[in-house]
Amino acid sequence: MIQMKNVIKKYPNGVVAANGITVNIKQGEFVYVVGPSGAGKSTFIKLMYREEKPTSGEVTVSGINLSTLKNGRVPHLRRQLGVVFQDFKLLPRLSVYENVAFAMEVIEEQPKEIRKRVMEVLELVGLKHKVRMLPSELSGGEQQRVSIARSIVNNPKVLIADEPTGNLDPETSWEIMEIFEEINRQGTTIVMATHNREIVNTIRKRVIAIEGGMIVRDEYGGDYGYEG
Amino acid sequence: MKGRTLRRHFRESFKSLGRNGWMTFASISAVTVTLLLVGVFAIIMMNLNKVADDLENDVEIRVMIEIFNDEAEMKAEEEKLIAQIENLPDVAEVVYSAKEDELEDLIHDFGDELSLFEQNNPLHNVLYVKAADPQSTADVAAQIEKLDHTYKVLYGEGKVEKLFSFLNISRNIGLVLILGLLFTAMFLISNTIRITIIARKDEIEIMKLVGATNSFVRIPFVLEGMWIGLLGSVIPIVVVSVVYYNLYHSLAPRLEGNMLELLSVTPLLYQVNALLVLIGLLIGIWGSFMSVRKFLKI
Ligand SMILES: Nc1ncnc2c1ncn2[C@@H]1O[C@H](COP(=O)(O)OP(=O)(O)O)[C@@H](O)[C@H]1O
Ligand SMILES: [Mg+2]
Questions:
Q1: Which of A178, B71, B82, B221 could connect to B288 by a Cys-Cys bridge, CB 3.0–4.6 Å?
Q2: Residue B274 to residues A13, A71, B127, B183, B224, Cα–Cα distance (Å)
Q3: Rounded distance, CA A163 to CA B20, Å?
Q4: What's the CA gap between A41 and B234, in Å, rounded?
């Protein structure tokens, strides 16, 4: 599903945030990406949805070769992916319903289909009763659930999340993880960068540890590490 | 693109005008002020241009024909001369004025005392020649001078050249001012629109993130720019039309018969107003197009 081969990413300021990354993530996997701040986790994630282009090496997502992907075809790639961020990235002037429907309008779905599918995903994240509210009227956890709903509304094969629980309290974080597990059970590949030791150690999944732009550990059912 | 999507773009562009209330107002004001200046300037320039054209077209060459003793010979030579002048390149028209007509004009201008010359008219028969391009009057005059049987060729040498160079300079200054104004307007408007777009950077980023194509992101902004340009041209059109209409109707009768005539209301205001709408649309569309372009490289 996701392959990287000898990927190097050097930012214009000279920082090498990915230094020879080779990895293979299969359809349906659930992968944590861990590592200290500045290790290159976000860069690793950004390379997957072509927010950043690799300086060298190859990135393939869902059969699309990102190294040769033309700018005009990036929307095609993005439609195969869902992306979730620490800061939710919701549109403040749109209601919960509109924020989710937005992702379907943008790809010109049928209005009937949009109504049906938006309610479906809002039910999955447990927000069916708050469709008319604005993001500002919701708690952080609820806002993140809206953003997750938006990310999966177009049935992506891969869900990419960069510290999705970074701004949430522990209890809310567990609720978010339940939703991710449910999405993963339905067959969606999940790649999630996180700092949350408790979650990684409790819900055991594949763990990829990055340090200095390199994969230093790749372990199925591994723990968070960095005990010291 | 689907019709539904196009309707969405129109809806979004309207909503966005309302949502960004004061920025919309600022952009429209920028367009309004500029177009007002452009409109006033265009009208002044077009009128000046007309005056210049009139002055130019008034320039003519006065060819005094040599006097012959034999009337028949004179007639023949005059006809030959007319034919020769008409055959010169750049000559638009040749008008013959007999010395009797010349004297009558003088009497008309200077008084009856001159009528005593009617018995023994000392004047020459004259040809009035106009160059096809008034600016080549001097050349044509020089060519006529080389022909036989001309007594004197006059065209206001010196004065005419000065007039022409003055008119040419004023035209160029006007053109530069209008272009400068348009350039400033484009800059002003694209900047104002850019600010409204910066405020919506997040929106664009999210659209791109969920897989919107560039044109899907761009079209509502460009439509918005179009409305801004269109709305911005309303006040200038009304002001320019009302002011010129009244000015024309109060000044035109007083200028009657004078060299300085104003351009009449109907074709002029249609032309200027069409120009204003067109410029408004263009700078609105161009401004948003350029501004949104920067944010699409995500
Ligand atoms: N756009 C950028 N331009 C320059 N340097 C960057 C950029 N993004 C990240 N970096 C640098 O790359 C390194 C890795 O950053 P990042 O991938 O965000 O790490 P993490 O998410 O693990 O904290 C850091 O040193 C960071 O300063
Ligand atoms: Mg990060």
A1: B221
A2: 51, 39, 44, 19, 20
A3: 32
A4: 54
Q: What are phi and psi of A111, to 5 degrees?
A: -55, -40
Q: Which two tokens stand for residue A160?
A: 């990419």
Which atom belonging to ligand 1 lies closest to the Cα atom of A36? 22
In order along its 298 residues, chain B shows pLDDT tens digits of 678 888 888 988 888 888 778 888 888 888 898 889 889 888 888 888 888 788 777 788 888 888 888 888 888 888 888 888 888 888 888 888 888 888 888 888 887 777 778 778 888 888 899 888 888 888 888 888 888 888 888 887 777 778 788 888 888 888 888 888 778 777 777 777 777 777 778 888 888 899 999 888 889 888 988 999 999 999 999 999 999 999 988 887 777 766 677 888 888 899 999 999 998 998 888 888 888 887 777 5
Residue among A49, A74, A91 whose CB faces B206 most closely: A91
> For atom 16 of ligand 1, which residue has the closest CA?
A40
* Helix and strand numbers, DSSP H then E, in chain A: 7, 10
CB-CB contact of B49 with B55 (8 Å): no
Expressed in angstroms, the distance from the first to the final Cα of chain B is 22
Is the pTM value of this prediction over 0.90?
no
Give this complex's ipTM.
Answer: 0.85
Domains in chain B: boundaries: 3-55+162-296, 60-154
Residue identified by tokens 């439609």 is A79
Q: Give the Cα separation of B52 and B171 in Å (integer).
A: 9
What lies within 8 Å, CB to CB, of B157 at 6+ separation is: B138, B141
Contacts by B258-261 with C-beta closer than 8 Å and gap 24+? Answer: B259/B51, B259/B54, B259/B55, B259/B58, B260/B51, B261/B50, B261/B51, B261/B54
Ligand nearest to the CA of A19: 1
- Asked whether the beta carbons of A208 and A194 are under 8 A apart, the reply is no
CA nearest to A160 within chain B: B209
CATH of domain B60-154: 3.30.70.3040
What is the H or E stretch that residue B145 is in?
helix B137-145
In this structure, the residue with its CA closest to atom 14 of ligand 1 is A40
Q: Which long-range contacts (CB under 8 A, 24 or more apart) does B198-202 make?
A: B199/B20, B199/B23, B200/B16, B200/B20, B201/B295, B202/A89, B202/A91
Determine the number of helices (DSSP H) and then strands (DSSP E) in chain B.
Answer: 10, 4
| Count of Cβ atoms closer than 10 Å to residue A33 Cβ | 25
Q: How far is the C-alpha of B23 from the C-alpha of A44, rounded, in Å?
A: 39
